[in-house]
Specification:
By secondary structure, the protein is an alpha/beta fold. It has 24 helices and 29 strands.
């Protein structure tokens, strides 16, 4: 097989090595535009796992690389002269120039052809290289091939806002990977620093565009810019200067990070993308080189499989895209965290700020930190406990078991059972099913148990099986449930009050045609629907009536009546449902609100009616009891819907109207939405609302592990965490989490009747922990 690699960076070189190792008869030629010793970076970073991968692929080159690595386990986080240090992180550094030299040496040994100072044109693919079986675009971030055929590769390049510059220094930062955050008169600026040889470190300086402009970096020469950075960070440099090797760059040496995403990596079954040509990962998690090397290993493996090249390329893409997307998502989380450093650094103390930074990618979790550095995590848990319980709390406490007070309601821990429709009521009345269901959940240890969306009228239901609270009979039925919960458990009960609006009159989900979401009832069984506008939820949905002023008054009164009944039924908290395309949400989202009066158009107008309902509910609810509002903080519909930029405005409006806490969900306002699902995928929006707006929040959405809950609370991304399906699978989820963590205390109170079962759960969990250690 003849393979031409266009680009002699790590990915292309390592592909050549990997192919030759598998079959020395392969003809591999690599063409690089620069000289052999040209390199415009400083150092590169690997994790220990990456070393394991390249060792398995080629022990010879891996050993040479390892012999020259600088290895460290510590991370230092400096903020204005104070420092937090944690260990067990396992990083390895090496100079980029030396790394390329080692790859050059190994490639030549194996017979790979290396051609430097070669400018390849696109026409060469079908002329000069017409006899090649495969063309590999390994030409990096600014790939000529990818940019020329950008549409065919489904490529999007997102230029991120922060500015950063690559510098070097002879201050070695020998002990640790070092983050330094300094406040200037113009704002915060920070450095990522790590040693890569005996006498040199990479020193990346990053800041927001506002601070970049205010400091005047755009008008400075490369040397002037480096000198200003030296002065800012001089107390960490021990008299060393900051060095620049960016003479090849015209204008400012500062750049914006380009986030590259490609849906397709293959063209004409003959051209394939690899490394930065196919994808980028933000430098803050140090994985760009890792991805390129692992691309090379995978591509070489599939090309050596004996299958046709077209099949091998497809298998390579399918295999790598999963890992790449997973890592890109983590890198994106980390990148966004650094873009919002002022949000966290001004809100958190140093220890919590460091925790937030360490867990920024969501790849490093709470328990992962315990494995890395138990002493540091114990100190973090103790620190949080003392903040919430006072200085007498001298022992580590899992964050999920910290108490929280909202008005005069105190919750024993931070776990909530999320609202989940059961579709099992008759005429809206909860019955024995609901008593056993909610009673079982309340016995399971969660501090707050939500009801399913409970509707203010029969015509406000989603399905005929939905619960309601529009009559005395409903009040009595709910009181039976709250009485059990209060008499036999430590849980509090919240009722979610809502109106289905345009999503009403549907079948129960288990009756749907699998191809029809929210399938309507037969026409003869439907009830009239209301919405902000006469817009059906989907093409097959009934058309709702656009609400009149009289309709608005009537539905508001129904919500107020529901609040009075909730109080009579003994609920501890109410939640107004203003999310997911239901009635109040249909006003907020432009996807469903097409009105041209004072209730449509601007966000202020779209919020007008939901806020009126919120204020009326708050007035009707006792002042000592809390109220939450659930919102869709993002519609996942691009500019056609709510975006994260409006999320905080929506949340703040409801807090101003009387809400004590915001339940931050997203989407479900259109079947055309394109969310970005993943674990804890809605939590970043809770983070924005909580830390930009100083608003208490509840995180919800694909949260299912003990680790998730502890990480969210410890990093200050939410105040409470709602879990739905995990509680259906295990009503005792919270008590099992306590056993898993070895926690015994007021945050996880077991039922006396079940004490033998809990004792066994703790014993078995302890044995598992001992076996794992």
């Amino acid at each position: 097989m003849k393979v031409i690699c266009l680009g002699g960076g790590p990915a292309g070189l390592y592909l050549g090595i990997s192919l030759k190792l598998r079959d020395p008869a392969h003809e591999i030629e690599i063409y690089e535009r620069n000289k052999p010793d040209d390199t415009f970076g400083w150092g590169i970073v690997f994790s220990d796992q990456t070393v394991d991968n390249i060792t398995a692929n080629d022990p010879v080159s891996a050993q040479r690389i390892v012999d020259e690595f600088i290895h460290w386990d510590l991370i230092d986080c400096h903020v204005s002269g104070e420092v937090e240090r944690s260990g067990g992180h396992g990083f390895i550094g090496l100079g980029r120039k030396r790394f390329l030299q080692l790859l050059h040496e190994r490639a030549r040994e194996l017979g790979v052809g290396l051609h430097f100072e070669q400018e390849v044109e696109l026409d060469d693919i079908n002329t000069r290289f017409a006899d090649a079986d495969l063309i590999v675009a390994s030409d990096g971030l600014n790939s000529k091939i990818r940019n020329t055929y950008r549409e065919e590769f489904g490529c999007t390049i997102e230029t991120r806002p922060n500015k950063f510059v690559w510098l070097g220094t002879h201050q070695t930062f020998r002990d640790a990977f070092t983050f330094i955050f300094e406040r200037t008169e113009q704002g915060w600026i920070w450095a990522h620093a790590y040693q890569f040889d005996d006498s040199t470190s990479t020193f990346i300086v990053e800041t927001t565009p506002e601070v970049y402009d205010a400091l005047g970096f755009d008008t400075m020469s490369h040397e002037e810019s480096a000198e200003i950075c030296r002065k800012i960070f001089e107390k960490y440099l021990d008299g060393h200067s900051l060095l620049t090797n960016s003479a090849h760059i015209r204008g400012s040496a500062w750049i914006n990070f380009p986030a590259v995403y490609c849906d397709n990596w293959i063209k004409d079954d003959r051209i394939v993308l690899i490394g930065d040509a196919a994808h980028t990962a933000h430098f803050s998690i140090g994985s760009g080189t890792k991805l390129g090397l692992e691309d090379a290993i995978s591509l070489a493996h599939h090309l050596d499989s004996g299958k046709p090249i077209s099949v091998a390329l497809k298998n390579y893409q399918e295999e790598r895209k999963i890992d790449v997307l997973r890592l890109q998502n983590s890198a994106r989380n980390a990148m966004i965290w650094f873009e919002n450093v002022p949000r966290y650094i001004d809100a958190f103390d140093l220890k919590q700020f460091n925790y937030s930074m360490l867990t920024r990618s969501q790849r490093v979790s709470h328990e992962n930190l315990r494995l890395r550095d138990k002493n540091w995590l114990d100190s973090m848990e103790t620190h949080l406990a003392q903040r919430h319980l006072g200085p007498a709390a001298n022992d580590p406490l899992p964050p999920m078991f910290l108490p929280l007070s909202l008005r005069e309601m105190t919750l024993q821990n931070r776990v909530c059972v999320s609202p989940m429709c059961m579709y099992s009521a008759t005429d809206g009345l909860p019955d024995d099913w609901h008593l056993v269901h909610y009673g079982g959940l309340a016995k399971g240890g969660a501090a707050l148990v939500y009801t399913e969306m409970t509707n203010v009228s029969a015509d406000g239901r989603i399905t005929p099986g939905c619960t309601g609270i529009w009559s005395d009979a409903h009040t009595d039925a709910w009181r039976r449930i709250t009485n059990f919960v209060h008499q036999h458990t430590h849980a509090k009960m919240a009722i979610q009050i809502g109106h289905a609006g345009p999503k009403g009159a549907t079948l129960e989900p288990w009756k749907w045609d699998p191809k029809i979401l929210d399938e309507p009832l037969p026409e003869s069984e439907q009830w009239p629907l209301l919405s902000a506008s006469a817009v059906p939820f989907d093409t097959y949905s009934p058309v709702p009536r656009a609400m009149t002023r009289d309709d608005m008054d009537s539905v508001l009164e129904q919500h107020v009546a529901a609040v009075h009944r909730a109080q009579a039924a003994g609920f501890d908290m109410i939640e107004m449902h203003a999310a997911h395309g239901y009635l109040l949400s249909s006003f907020i989202t432009p996807v469903l609100n097409h009105r041209d009066d004072e209730y449509g158009g601007s966000l202020e107008n779209r919020l007008r009616y939901p806020l009126a309902v919120c204020r009326a509910m708050r007035t009707a609810w006792p002042s000592e009891k809390p109220m939450s509002v659930r919102i869709s903080a993002h519609d996942w519909m691009g500019d056609a819907g709510i975006t994260e930029h409006e999320a905080l405005l929506i949340a703040q409006a409801f807090v101003d109207a009387g809400a004590d806490i915001i339940n931050v969900s997203t989407g479900q306002t259109s079947h055309a939405a394109q969310p970005q699902p993943g674990r804890m995928f809605q939590t970043p929006l809770s983070d924005i609302i909580r830390n930009d707006g100083n608003i208490p929040t509840i995180a919800v959405g694909n949260i299912y592990e003990t680790d998730h809950v502890n990480s969210i609370i410890a990093a200050g991304r939410a105040d409470l965490v709602c879990l739905a399906r995990p509680h259906l699978a295990d009503p005792n989820w919270t008590l099992h989490a306590a056993a898993e963590l070895g926690y015994r205390g007021p945050g996880a109170v077991e039922q006396h009747q079940y004490f033998l079962g809990h004792r066994q759960a703790y014993t078995l969990a302890e044995r598992e922990r001992e076996a794992a250690s």
